[in-house]
Specification:
Elements (H helix, E strand, L loop, with lengths): L10 H11 L5 E5 L2 E5 L4 E4 L18 E5 H12 L13 E7 L2 E7 L3 E7 L8 E6 H10 L4 E6 L3 E6 L2 E6 L18 E6 H14 L6 E7 L2 E8 L4 E8 L1 E3 L3 E6 H9 L5 E6 L6 E5 L6 E7 L8
Antiparallel strand pairs: 1-2, 2-3, 4-9, 5-6, 5-8, 6-7, 7-20, 9-10, 10-11, 12-16, 12-18, 13-14, 13-17, 14-15, 18-19, 19-20
Helix pairs in contact: 2-3, 4-5
């Protein structure tokens, strides 16, 4: 590097351009108020702005700190992020709740139809507190986290994260997150144990053939497994498929939105899973059959009334 320079460029443009070059040497120079990138194949000019227009970077002065391993934090945020609501009218649900308690740290996201709760049971706190991190911040943070310990500082309205050579500041969502434990059924009496791969595969086929406006599927449960069924009367398409499983409990049929069921299954990182059910009108709980040490993951999915299918 010869000399030094500071400038502002369009981040996405620069990132996409560098990716397009592949594995090659790039020389960056400033000529005639332009940034010039030179390679063996050509020269490429970019406009830039003065760094004086860039907002200053401020750390947050607070004694409230969450010390957590980056791998745990990344896994927790990845597990929960897909359930974050996209409804701007439900501000609190557009982020991930980090609920720090004596029994562990719980990462929760919900869009009112599905809910994910990832618990890091070894990360405990004597003084319970909770913050809600915006979904956009979560998506960026997951990409930036480096191996090692993370210092996660927070106040009532902001957060500061330091991971390796990366520092990040963000606002927090100040709206109250819903009481998530109130909607999680405890110890459903009916339990389905099933391999993930055939379940996901069958659900994908249901999604392709279901009504595009409703995307609903029936799931009939008995001791031999499950029977998935969907129908689109408008197009005349129909699907009916059996998936082997081990089911203990009352025989009944429950309905789900196919897309949401597929999302839940696709985001469970396991070979086999357990589904705990209460009744056709109560939420179903999806869990890995084997949980990793010091963690507890559950995903909740609300059912759909069968008379709407």
């Amino acid at each position: 590097c010869e000399g030094s320079a500071r400038f502002i460029v369009k981040g996405k443009l620069l990132s996409d351009f560098v990716k397009s070059l592949g594995d090659t040497l790039i020389r960056v120079v400033i000529e005639d108020q332009k940034i010039v990138m030179k390679t063996d194949m050509g020269h490429y000019n970019f406009n830039y702005a003065s760094p004086e227009n860039f907002p200053g970077f401020k750390s947050i002065e607070t004694d409230k700190v969450l010390d957590i391993d980056a791998k745990i934090l990344k896994k927790a945020l990845q597990a929960a992020s897909f359930a974050v609501s996209k409804d701007s009218a439900r501000v609190a649900m557009t982020g991930v709740l980090i609920d720090m308690r004596e029994d562990g740290t719980h990462f929760v996201a919900t869009d009112a139809h599905k809910l994910v709760k990832y618990s890091a049971t070894a990360v405990k706190h004597d003084e319970p507190t909770a913050i809600v991190v915006p979904g956009k911040t979560v998506n960026i943070l997951v990409k930036l986290l480096e191996d090692g310990n993370v210092a996660f500082k927070y106040t009532s309205g902001g957060m500061f994260v330091e991971s390796g050579t990366t520092k990040m500041v963000s606002r927090l969502i100040e709206h109250k997150f819903p009481e998530y434990n109130a909607v999680i059924p405890q110890d459903g009496p009916n339990k389905l144990t099933i391999s993930k791969a055939p379940f996901v595969s069958a659900t994908r086929r249901m999604m392709l053939l279901s009504n595009k406006n409703f995307q609903l599927v029936k799931m009939a449960l008995d001791k031999d497994g499950i029977q998935l069924n969907t129908e689109d009367q408008e197009s005349g398409s129909k699907a009916d498929e059996a998936v082997p499983a081990n089911y203990i409990g009352e025989n009944f049929t429950i309905g789900f939105k196919t897309e949401s069921l597929f999302e839940i299954l696709n985001n469970l990182s396991c070979d086999d899973l357990v589904v705990e059910l209460v009744s056709p009108s109560k939420a179903a709980i999806f869990k890995p059959l084997k949980q990793d040490e010091n963690e507890d993951l559950l995903m909740l999915l609300m059912p759909t009334r069968l008379n709407t299918i």
